[in-house]
Specification:
By secondary structure, the protein is α/β, with parallel strands linked by helices. The protein folds into two domains: 214 residues, Aldolase class I (TIM Barrel), CATH 3.20.20; 164 residues, 3-Layer(bba) Sandwich (Glucose Oxidase, domain 1), CATH 3.50.30. Strands 1-2-3-4-5-6-7-8 form an eight-stranded parallel beta barrel, surrounded by nine helices. Strands 9, 10, 11, 12, 13, 14, 17 and 18 form an eight-stranded mixed sheet that branches. A two-stranded antiparallel sheet has the order 15-16. Helix 1 links the parallel strand 1 and strand 2. Helix 9 runs parallel beside helix 11. The longest helix is centred in the last third of the chain and has 23 residues. The radius of gyration is 26 Å and the shape is elongated. The mean pLDDT is 97. The structure holds ribulose-5-phosphate. Ribulose-5-phosphate (5RP) binds next to strand 8 and helix 10. The site of ribulose-5-phosphate has 17 residues, from strand 8 and helix 10. GO terms for molecular function: 3-dehydro-L-gulonate-6-phosphate decarboxylase activity; hexulose-6-phosphate synthase activity; orotidine-5'-phosphate decarboxylase activity.
């Protein structure tokens, strides 16, 4: 039977224990994740072992040196399996194995970031590891990778049990088992969900009745849009290390969300020629972002809005002035602007379409992704759009779980151990 391993990649031990209790019935192995070990040390392994006597406890040390010492520490603290890095020197791996044999635990070698995972897997088997873990780490997952292709190759080459990890969802977990994985490791998609128990049940079912599910990937832009529709501008800001929104630009209609790639416009205060021409340039689902040299006269109004709607444009962001807002409200179209005035300017045709602009302190290039909601407007550089969307989704998942814990009666400071994590002065 395939085994399910929950990876507790948190920094707070209390929360980790609570989540582990919620899912214990449905998982076989409980992993003390690397962040938890770094935050709480061997105490985290000890607490897990004492709390979950019927489970195998995995210490995800990601050891790269001093294999014997780190394995000894873990084994003495109650770990049944210790994860070391396949990238380690053979001598570290051999020492880790010797220590594991002496202190009574097993070694799982993690292929994360190894340049030749299949060759290394064969060597690791020769060296005597007990498990091999085909793993795509969290940062690399954010670039769109998963472990499936490497898993397919590794399972054909080794006979030790193979584990698999790397942002697995229910379908991928099922597929991995049908490909030959014996341990499925799941972190985020159990631990960071609103209801870890329900999620664990879904994974349990999926791996117990594993099928070769076909994983169909959408186009990159479709995936980005789909993810951004699920998150908020605060989630995106957090994912970008608390990056700033375009300053001073807010929605004309509250409760509207805009997601799409930018068509940029530079124009003069009140000169509405280029903004209106940009409607002809923009494609359905795109967002027109206008930088005006000033905001004393409007460059946008009702008629432009109607024209925009005909083309299926997702929204308009104006670092300048708009008018006809009563009509725009009736049309229910998302326009974000710096200022509302009644007077328009003349269509003189100064400026350019699809050039680099700077709006409210933030650079916007054609093709950058825009996400706008009641909190403001965030710009995501095109090159990092997929990664940032994925990271924003992780932020959201983390908040979903914390929200559920607040609903359970705890304070935010208590949940995230705020006092402990204040910067030491
Ligand atoms: O070791 C890890 C990260 O280095 C994680 O524990 C592992 O990737 C499983 O978590 P997720 O399902 O979120 O990828």
């Amino acid at each position: 039977m395939p085994k399910l391993q929950v990876a507790l990649d948190l920094v707070e031990l209390k929360r980790a224990v609570e989540i582990a209790k919620e899912v214990a019935e449905y998982v076989d192995l409980i992993e003390v994740g690397t962040p938890l070990i770094k935050s709480e040390g061997m105490n985290a392994v000890r607490v897990m072992k004492k709390t979950f006597r019927n489970h195998e406890i995995v210490a995800d040390m990601k050891t790269i040196d001093t294999g014997a010492l780190e394995v000894e520490m873990c084994a003495k603290s109650g770990a049944d399996i210790v994860i070391i890095l396949a990238l380690s020197n053979d001598s570290t791996i051999e020492e880790a194995i010797r220590s594991a044999r002496k202190y009574g635990c097993k070694i799982m070698a993690d292929l994360i970031n190894h340049p030749n995972p299949v060759e290394r897997a064969k060597e690791l088997e020769e060296l005597g590891v007990d498990y091999i873990n085909v793993h795509v780490g969290i940062d690399v997952q954010m670039l769109g990778y998963d472990p499936i292709e490497i898993l397919k190759k590794v399972v054909k080459e080794v006979s030790v049990p193979v584990a698999v990890a790397g942002g697995l969802d229910v379908d991928r977990a099922s597929l991995c088992v049908s490909l030959g994985a014996e341990i499925v490791i799941v972190g985020s998609n159990i631990v960071k969900t609103k209801n870890p128990k329900e999620s664990a049940i879904k994974f349990r079912k999926a791996i117990d009745s594993a099928k070769p599910v076909e994983i169909v990937r959408k186009s990159l832009d479709e995936e980005i849009r789909e993810i951004l529709m699920q998150v908020t501008t605060p989630n995106v800001s957090d994912a970008m290390h608390r990056a700033k929104a375009i300053e001073g630009i807010y929605p004309i209609i509250k409760g509207k969300k805009v997601v799409g790639k930018a068509v940029t416009v530079y124009t003069m205060d009140g000169d509405w020629a280029k903004p209106v021409e940009a409607i002809d340039v923009a494609k359905a689902g795109e967002v027109i972002v206008i930088k005006c040299s000033g905001d004393s006269s409007a460059v946008w109004g009702e008629l432009a809005t109607r024209s925009c709607m005909n083309k299926g444009i997702a929204g308009v962001i104006i670092d300048g002035a708009v008018r006809d807002v009563d009509e725009i409200v009736k049309l229910d179209f998302p326009v974000f602007a710096r200022k509302v005035v009644p007077n328009a300017g003349e269509p003189k045709g100064f400026g350019e379409i699809n050039v680099k602009i700077v709006c409210g302190g933030v650079e916007v290039n054609p093709g950058d992704w825009i996400i706008a909601d009641d909190n403001g407007v965030m710009v995501i550089p095109q090159k990092r759009a997929y990664e940032i969307a994925r990271r924003a989704l992780e932020v959201k998942k983390h908040e979903d779980r914390i929200r559920a814990e607040i609903e359970g009666g705890k304070t935010l400071a208590e949940i995230i151990e705020l006092y402990k994590w204040e910067k030491l002065k």
